[in-house]
UniProtKB/TrEMBL annotation, chains A, B:
The keyword DNA-binding applies. It comes from Lentzea rhizosphaerae. This is Winged helix-turn-helix transcriptional regulator. InterPro entries: ArsR-like_HTH, HTH_HxlR, WH-like_DNA-bd_sf, WH_DNA-bd_sf. CDD domains: HTH_ARSR.
Length: 217, 217
DNA sequence: CTGCATCCCCTCAGATACTG
DNA sequence: CAGTATCTGAGGGGATGCAG
């Protein structure tokens, strides 16, 4: 299998050789949330041709970024997961995601908003400095989307779906009719008080402090 | 001009829409070092077809990443430079560069090593914590490549060519016959003492502390 | 000499259909 | 569920042409 490459001895060029092909980093994005099956990835990447997904998975596997596992008895089937090398891509995803977010205006009609994107966005907004020593758990509801964040003495974990265990604060955004259920929309709603809370109110401020980027001066 | 896009309301997807096309980030890489002319870019990106370079520059311009300037009297001609938005991509380049470097083995025959790659690599290795309060200037020679780094009370600047002003320390790597003149090769040489110095020896240790990533335990 | 535009070829993305 | 097979067309790779 001849892979075309940039032919430069350069970290950036090598990175692009490995994960620069179309769709590759979006596949990695979905896998950072949790391991997925083939059809999960298809569903999370609207518009990806099945042959491209198939090809990318093979390439990423060969690159040592993705691991193909045959799941054991209970559910059985094929599951794709990130290798440690693939997990090391998270800073890249966050850097790209932050930059892209700053270039992201209002959603255009037809834009899909996936739960994975929302969780990535929350992670990209995470402020480790503000989180130092903080413990707590939050559950986020925006439209159909449910996600959670758990802080254990500053250690951050997040994912799609209801929080594992009982969350300290459940937050449900009250969206306008036209609002798309994104992490952005949630934060916007939360900041303007358009959010229903189940739990202590102070934890909302904590959340906003730890999980949003402060406005530049 | 209809640009295909991922159709996701997601920072990462948007970033890839804007700078995810082939060659785009390598063009940005070269422009982070300094503004360039069309032919400079061609020379720095061996293998890029001229029509692709032309197309990318237009796309990047439209994306607000690159600015096309018509240089005034002295040299006259067209110069491409990064806009502030484009400069904000530096964390992305560094993150990708770091990851890619970790996946970068020995240079393969035919691999080109460009000065831009070397400077990006030095920047990616920069340790702000170690640099706090440090002032000094270094000039690096590896094969034909000359680059410099200047620290002014922790503020970091770097580029291709001889240092502006008289450098505190000039370092020239003694390469083996097979060694490719990369930043990596320089660091390797410097760490093993295979480097000729003009200036105080302690500054070499300072350099290695500030401009290399410490080995993980 | 710089700064592209044009042409041709061919790979690869995109879409759909189909199979173990 | 997890892909493979097949077709089409856009766009990358490479060479060349040409105006300012």
């Amino acid at each position: 299998m001849k892979r075309r490459d940039y032919g430069q001895y350069c970290g950036l060029a090598r990175a692009l050789d490995l994960v620069g092909e179309r769709w590759a980093l979006l596949i990695v994005r979905d896998l950072t949330i949790r391991p997925r099956r083939y059809t999960d990835l298809q569903a999370g990447l609207p518009g990806i041709p099945t042959n491209v997904l198939s090809t990318r998975l093979k390439e990423l596997e060969q690159a040592g970024v993705v691991e193909r596992r045959v799941a054991p008895a209970p559910q059985r089937g094929v599951v794709y997961a990130l290798t440690p090398v693939g997990q090391d891509l998270e800073p890249v995803l966050l850097a790209l995601g932050r930059w892209g977010s700053s270039q992201l205006g209002d959603p255009r009609p037809g834009d899909v908003i996936s739960p994975d994107a929302a969780v990535l966005n929350m992670r990209a907004n995470f402020q480790p400095a503000e989180a130092a020593g903080v413990t707590g758990s939050w559950e986020i509801h925006v439209g159909d989307l449910v996600a959670y964040a758990v802080l254990t003495d500053g250690e951050f974990e997040s994912g799609i779906g209801p929080a594992p265990g009982k969350p300290d604060l459940v937050m449900t955004a009250r969206l306008g009719a036209d609002d798309v259920p994104s992490y952005r929309a949630f934060v916007k709603a939360a900041k303007s008080g358009k959010v229903d809370l189940v739990g202590p109110r102070e934890l909302l401020d904590t959340f906003l402090r730890v999980f949003t980027v402060p406005k530049a001066a």
